[in-house]
Design brief:
11 strands; 2 domains; 3-stranded antiparallel β-sheet; 317 residues; 3-stranded mixed β-sheet; alpha+beta; Lysozyme
Length: 317
Protein backbone atom coordinates (compact mmCIF):
# COMPACT_ATOMS: atom_id res chain seq x y z
CA UNK A 1 0.00 0.00 0.00
CA UNK A 2 1.54 3.31 -0.97
CA UNK A 3 1.47 6.58 0.91
CA UNK A 4 -1.24 8.10 -1.26
CA UNK A 5 -3.68 5.36 -0.18
CA UNK A 6 -2.53 4.80 3.38
CA UNK A 7 -2.78 8.31 4.81
CA UNK A 8 -6.41 9.00 3.71
CA UNK A 9 -7.38 5.58 5.04
CA UNK A 10 -6.01 6.42 8.49
CA UNK A 11 -8.03 9.63 8.73
CA UNK A 12 -11.22 8.00 7.48
CA UNK A 13 -10.93 5.40 10.19
CA UNK A 14 -10.14 8.08 12.75
CA UNK A 15 -13.44 9.81 12.00
CA UNK A 16 -15.49 6.61 12.14
CA UNK A 17 -14.31 5.16 15.44
CA UNK A 18 -15.44 6.23 18.90
CA UNK A 19 -12.11 6.73 20.70
CA UNK A 20 -11.43 6.01 24.36
CA UNK A 21 -9.97 8.50 26.85
CA UNK A 22 -6.98 10.66 25.91
CA UNK A 23 -4.09 8.37 26.99
CA UNK A 24 -5.60 5.25 25.47
CA UNK A 25 -6.62 7.25 22.40
CA UNK A 26 -3.00 8.13 21.60
CA UNK A 27 -1.85 4.55 22.04
CA UNK A 28 -4.65 3.25 19.84
CA UNK A 29 -3.88 5.76 17.09
CA UNK A 30 -0.18 4.83 17.13
CA UNK A 31 -1.14 1.16 16.87
CA UNK A 32 -3.43 1.91 13.92
CA UNK A 33 -0.67 3.73 12.07
CA UNK A 34 1.74 0.90 12.75
CA UNK A 35 -0.72 -1.69 11.42
CA UNK A 36 -1.30 0.32 8.26
CA UNK A 37 2.43 0.70 7.53
CA UNK A 38 2.15 4.48 7.45
CA UNK A 39 4.75 5.00 10.16
CA UNK A 40 7.49 3.85 7.84
CA UNK A 41 6.29 6.15 5.07
CA UNK A 42 5.77 9.46 6.84
CA UNK A 43 6.70 12.51 4.78
CA UNK A 44 10.37 13.53 5.27
CA UNK A 45 11.29 16.68 7.14
CA UNK A 46 11.67 19.60 4.73
CA UNK A 47 15.34 20.38 4.01
CA UNK A 48 16.62 23.93 4.08
CA UNK A 49 17.92 25.30 0.80
CA UNK A 50 21.70 26.02 0.74
CA UNK A 51 22.38 29.60 1.77
CA UNK A 52 23.75 31.77 -0.99
CA UNK A 53 26.45 33.16 1.30
CA UNK A 54 27.77 29.77 2.47
CA UNK A 55 30.75 28.35 0.50
CA UNK A 56 30.12 25.02 -1.22
CA UNK A 57 32.66 22.19 -1.37
CA UNK A 58 33.83 21.09 -4.83
CA UNK A 59 32.92 17.50 -5.71
CA UNK A 60 34.98 14.93 -7.61
CA UNK A 61 33.39 11.49 -7.99
CA UNK A 62 35.79 8.56 -7.66
CA UNK A 63 34.66 5.55 -9.72
CA UNK A 64 34.89 2.18 -8.01
CA UNK A 65 37.94 0.05 -8.72
CA UNK A 66 36.99 -2.31 -11.52
CA UNK A 67 38.30 -4.44 -14.36
CA UNK A 68 38.20 -1.75 -17.07
CA UNK A 69 41.28 -1.76 -19.36
CA UNK A 70 44.09 0.71 -18.73
CA UNK A 71 47.70 1.55 -19.48
CA UNK A 72 50.35 -1.00 -18.46
CA UNK A 73 53.17 0.99 -16.92
CA UNK A 74 56.70 -0.44 -17.34
CA UNK A 75 57.68 -2.62 -14.39
CA UNK A 76 60.85 -0.89 -13.22
CA UNK A 77 61.44 -3.47 -10.49
CA UNK A 78 61.49 -6.27 -13.06
CA UNK A 79 63.75 -4.22 -15.35
CA UNK A 80 66.39 -3.86 -12.64
CA UNK A 81 68.19 -0.76 -11.45
CA UNK A 82 68.95 1.64 -14.27
CA UNK A 83 71.06 4.76 -14.24
CA UNK A 84 69.32 7.91 -13.10
CA UNK A 85 68.98 10.62 -15.72
CA UNK A 86 66.98 13.50 -17.05
CA UNK A 87 66.49 14.49 -20.68
CA UNK A 88 66.15 18.08 -21.84
CA UNK A 89 63.53 19.34 -24.26
CA UNK A 90 64.10 21.05 -27.58
CA UNK A 91 64.21 24.52 -26.11
CA UNK A 92 66.65 26.78 -24.28
CA UNK A 93 67.52 24.89 -21.05
CA UNK A 94 69.49 26.30 -18.12
CA UNK A 95 70.92 24.64 -15.02
CA UNK A 96 70.66 27.17 -12.16
CA UNK A 97 72.62 27.10 -8.93
CA UNK A 98 69.47 27.89 -6.96
CA UNK A 99 65.74 28.13 -7.61
CA UNK A 100 65.76 31.82 -8.47
CA UNK A 101 65.08 33.03 -12.05
CA UNK A 102 68.09 32.80 -14.39
CA UNK A 103 68.06 36.46 -15.45
CA UNK A 104 69.99 37.65 -12.40
CA UNK A 105 72.46 34.75 -12.21
CA UNK A 106 76.03 35.02 -13.52
CA UNK A 107 77.15 32.76 -16.37
CA UNK A 108 79.24 29.79 -15.24
CA UNK A 109 78.96 30.51 -11.51
CA UNK A 110 75.17 30.84 -11.30
CA UNK A 111 73.75 29.34 -14.48
CA UNK A 112 74.94 27.04 -17.24
CA UNK A 113 73.30 26.27 -20.57
CA UNK A 114 72.43 22.62 -21.27
CA UNK A 115 72.21 21.04 -24.69
CA UNK A 116 68.75 20.54 -26.18
CA UNK A 117 67.20 17.05 -26.54
CA UNK A 118 70.07 15.53 -24.55
CA UNK A 119 70.15 12.83 -21.89
CA UNK A 120 72.25 13.71 -18.83
CA UNK A 121 73.29 11.12 -16.25
CA UNK A 122 72.83 12.24 -12.66
CA UNK A 123 73.87 11.09 -9.20
CA UNK A 124 70.77 9.93 -7.34
CA UNK A 125 67.17 10.30 -8.36
CA UNK A 126 65.83 13.68 -9.47
CA UNK A 127 64.01 15.66 -6.76
CA UNK A 128 60.85 17.60 -7.60
CA UNK A 129 60.43 20.96 -5.89
CA UNK A 130 57.61 23.25 -6.98
CA UNK A 131 58.13 24.06 -10.67
CA UNK A 132 61.72 22.74 -10.61
CA UNK A 133 63.69 19.53 -10.68
CA UNK A 134 66.82 19.46 -8.52
CA UNK A 135 69.59 17.28 -9.93
CA UNK A 136 73.30 16.58 -9.52
CA UNK A 137 75.18 15.94 -12.74
CA UNK A 138 77.56 12.98 -12.76
CA UNK A 139 79.99 14.82 -14.97
CA UNK A 140 80.76 18.57 -14.80
CA UNK A 141 79.80 20.79 -17.69
CA UNK A 142 82.60 22.66 -19.51
CA UNK A 143 82.92 26.11 -17.99
CA UNK A 144 80.37 25.41 -15.26
CA UNK A 145 81.51 25.81 -11.64
CA UNK A 146 78.78 23.64 -10.11
CA UNK A 147 77.13 20.27 -10.76
CA UNK A 148 74.09 20.41 -8.45
CA UNK A 149 71.30 22.77 -9.40
CA UNK A 150 67.78 23.36 -10.62
CA UNK A 151 66.10 22.97 -13.99
CA UNK A 152 62.57 24.17 -14.73
CA UNK A 153 60.27 21.17 -15.05
CA UNK A 154 58.89 22.49 -18.34
CA UNK A 155 62.42 22.24 -19.78
CA UNK A 156 62.69 18.53 -18.92
CA UNK A 157 61.23 16.00 -21.33
CA UNK A 158 61.69 12.90 -19.19
CA UNK A 159 63.48 11.48 -16.16
CA UNK A 160 64.43 8.06 -14.87
CA UNK A 161 61.36 8.21 -12.60
CA UNK A 162 59.07 7.90 -15.62
CA UNK A 163 55.55 9.30 -15.74
CA UNK A 164 53.89 10.98 -18.73
CA UNK A 165 56.99 10.52 -20.90
CA UNK A 166 56.29 6.77 -20.93
CA UNK A 167 52.86 7.23 -22.49
CA UNK A 168 52.02 7.06 -26.23
CA UNK A 169 51.69 10.42 -28.02
CA UNK A 170 47.88 10.35 -28.20
CA UNK A 171 47.54 9.81 -24.46
CA UNK A 172 50.15 12.46 -23.61
CA UNK A 173 48.34 14.93 -25.85
CA UNK A 174 45.05 14.15 -24.12
CA UNK A 175 46.57 14.69 -20.66
CA UNK A 176 48.00 18.00 -21.87
CA UNK A 177 44.52 18.95 -23.08
CA UNK A 178 42.95 17.98 -19.75
CA UNK A 179 45.52 20.10 -17.92
CA UNK A 180 44.84 22.97 -20.32
CA UNK A 181 41.13 22.74 -19.55
CA UNK A 182 41.86 22.74 -15.80
CA UNK A 183 44.10 25.79 -16.19
CA UNK A 184 47.29 24.10 -14.96
CA UNK A 185 49.04 23.41 -18.30
CA UNK A 186 52.45 21.93 -17.44
CA UNK A 187 52.40 22.88 -13.75
CA UNK A 188 52.16 20.07 -11.22
CA UNK A 189 52.43 22.48 -8.26
CA UNK A 190 49.16 24.41 -8.59
CA UNK A 191 46.29 24.31 -6.11
CA UNK A 192 42.79 25.67 -6.65
CA UNK A 193 42.94 29.48 -7.25
CA UNK A 194 46.46 29.03 -8.73
CA UNK A 195 48.36 29.20 -5.46
CA UNK A 196 51.43 26.98 -5.52
CA UNK A 197 53.21 24.53 -3.23
CA UNK A 198 56.83 23.38 -3.11
CA UNK A 199 56.97 19.96 -1.45
CA UNK A 200 55.66 16.88 -3.23
CA UNK A 201 55.97 14.69 -0.11
CA UNK A 202 52.15 14.48 0.02
CA UNK A 203 49.04 16.09 -1.38
CA UNK A 204 49.27 19.68 -0.06
CA UNK A 205 45.74 19.60 1.44
CA UNK A 206 45.41 23.38 1.06
CA UNK A 207 41.75 24.37 0.97
CA UNK A 208 41.21 27.49 -1.11
CA UNK A 209 37.98 29.35 -1.91
CA UNK A 210 36.92 31.38 -4.93
CA UNK A 211 33.51 32.99 -4.66
CA UNK A 212 31.18 30.39 -3.13
CA UNK A 213 33.33 27.42 -4.17
CA UNK A 214 35.97 25.89 -1.88
CA UNK A 215 38.32 23.06 -2.80
CA UNK A 216 41.44 21.12 -1.88
CA UNK A 217 42.13 20.47 -5.59
CA UNK A 218 45.85 20.27 -6.30
CA UNK A 219 48.35 19.17 -8.91
CA UNK A 220 48.28 19.15 -12.67
CA UNK A 221 44.99 17.23 -12.74
CA UNK A 222 43.44 18.97 -9.71
CA UNK A 223 42.94 15.98 -7.40
CA UNK A 224 40.83 16.58 -4.32
CA UNK A 225 42.61 15.35 -1.20
CA UNK A 226 40.04 12.55 -0.63
CA UNK A 227 40.34 11.40 -4.24
CA UNK A 228 44.12 11.39 -3.99
CA UNK A 229 44.14 9.44 -0.73
CA UNK A 230 42.00 6.68 -2.21
CA UNK A 231 44.03 6.43 -5.42
CA UNK A 232 47.39 6.61 -3.65
CA UNK A 233 46.33 3.85 -1.28
CA UNK A 234 45.13 1.58 -4.10
CA UNK A 235 48.20 2.21 -6.27
CA UNK A 236 50.82 2.31 -3.52
CA UNK A 237 51.91 5.86 -4.36
CA UNK A 238 54.17 7.23 -1.63
CA UNK A 239 54.24 10.88 -2.64
CA UNK A 240 52.54 13.50 -4.81
CA UNK A 241 55.39 13.74 -7.31
CA UNK A 242 54.62 14.48 -10.97
CA UNK A 243 55.18 10.87 -12.12
CA UNK A 244 52.75 9.67 -9.45
CA UNK A 245 50.19 12.31 -10.45
CA UNK A 246 50.44 10.93 -14.00
CA UNK A 247 49.87 7.39 -12.75
CA UNK A 248 46.88 8.49 -10.66
CA UNK A 249 45.17 10.34 -13.51
CA UNK A 250 45.57 7.31 -15.76
CA UNK A 251 43.91 5.23 -13.04
CA UNK A 252 40.97 7.65 -12.88
CA UNK A 253 40.63 7.45 -16.66
CA UNK A 254 40.74 3.65 -16.50
CA UNK A 255 38.14 3.36 -13.74
CA UNK A 256 35.80 5.68 -15.59
CA UNK A 257 35.91 3.37 -18.63
CA UNK A 258 37.54 6.00 -20.84
CA UNK A 259 40.98 4.49 -21.49
CA UNK A 260 40.28 3.07 -24.95
CA UNK A 261 38.75 6.36 -26.08
CA UNK A 262 41.73 8.31 -24.72
CA UNK A 263 44.20 5.90 -26.32
CA UNK A 264 42.44 6.39 -29.66
CA UNK A 265 41.80 10.12 -29.21
CA UNK A 266 43.61 11.05 -32.43
CA UNK A 267 40.19 10.27 -33.91
CA UNK A 268 37.78 13.16 -33.32
CA UNK A 269 35.01 10.68 -32.54
CA UNK A 270 37.08 9.02 -29.81
CA UNK A 271 38.26 12.39 -28.51
CA UNK A 272 34.67 13.55 -28.01
CA UNK A 273 33.75 10.21 -26.46
CA UNK A 274 36.61 10.51 -23.96
CA UNK A 275 35.68 14.09 -23.04
CA UNK A 276 32.02 13.24 -22.52
CA UNK A 277 32.97 10.19 -20.48
CA UNK A 278 35.25 12.17 -18.16
CA UNK A 279 33.20 15.32 -17.65
CA UNK A 280 31.66 13.74 -14.55
CA UNK A 281 35.11 14.02 -12.89
CA UNK A 282 36.57 17.24 -14.34
CA UNK A 283 34.27 20.25 -14.17
CA UNK A 284 36.14 22.17 -16.89
CA UNK A 285 35.20 19.69 -19.63
CA UNK A 286 32.23 20.51 -21.89
CA UNK A 287 28.98 18.91 -20.80
CA UNK A 288 29.97 18.83 -17.12
CA UNK A 289 27.03 19.22 -14.75
CA UNK A 290 29.05 21.34 -12.33
CA UNK A 291 28.48 25.09 -12.31
CA UNK A 292 32.02 26.10 -13.21
CA UNK A 293 33.57 27.63 -16.34
CA UNK A 294 34.02 25.10 -19.15
CA UNK A 295 36.14 24.91 -22.27
CA UNK A 296 34.48 24.34 -25.63
CA UNK A 297 34.98 21.09 -27.51
CA UNK A 298 36.39 23.01 -30.48
CA UNK A 299 39.02 24.75 -28.32
CA UNK A 300 40.08 21.48 -26.70
CA UNK A 301 40.30 19.66 -30.03
CA UNK A 302 42.49 22.42 -31.45
CA UNK A 303 44.79 22.34 -28.43
CA UNK A 304 44.96 18.54 -28.55
CA UNK A 305 46.12 18.47 -32.16
CA UNK A 306 48.94 20.94 -31.50
CA UNK A 307 50.12 18.76 -28.60
CA UNK A 308 49.78 15.58 -30.66
CA UNK A 309 51.90 17.03 -33.49
CA UNK A 310 54.56 17.97 -30.94
CA UNK A 311 54.81 14.47 -29.48
CA UNK A 312 54.67 12.75 -32.86
CA UNK A 313 57.57 14.86 -34.07
CA UNK A 314 59.80 14.14 -31.08
CA UNK A 315 62.78 11.82 -31.63
CA UNK A 316 62.46 8.30 -30.28
CA UNK A 317 63.83 7.91 -26.75
Amino acid sequence: MNKQTVIPLVFLLAGAVSWPATGARAAAFEELIGLSGAAAEQAPEPQAEPRADVPQEMLQPLPWNNSEPGFNWPDKAAMGRAEDYFRTTGQYVVLRIDNSPPEGLPEGAGKCVLAENTKYLISGTPVFEGENIRITLKEPLPGCLFRQGYVYMEQVGSTSLGGASELPPAIRAFLDTLAYAEGTAGRYDYVFTFDTFTSYADHPRMKRCSGRLCSTAAGRYQFLSDTWDALAGDLGLRDFSPPNQDKAVMELIRRDGAYNAVAGSASHKNFKRAVHKLNNIWASLPGSRYGQPKQSMAALWKYYNVALDKYNSQPLR
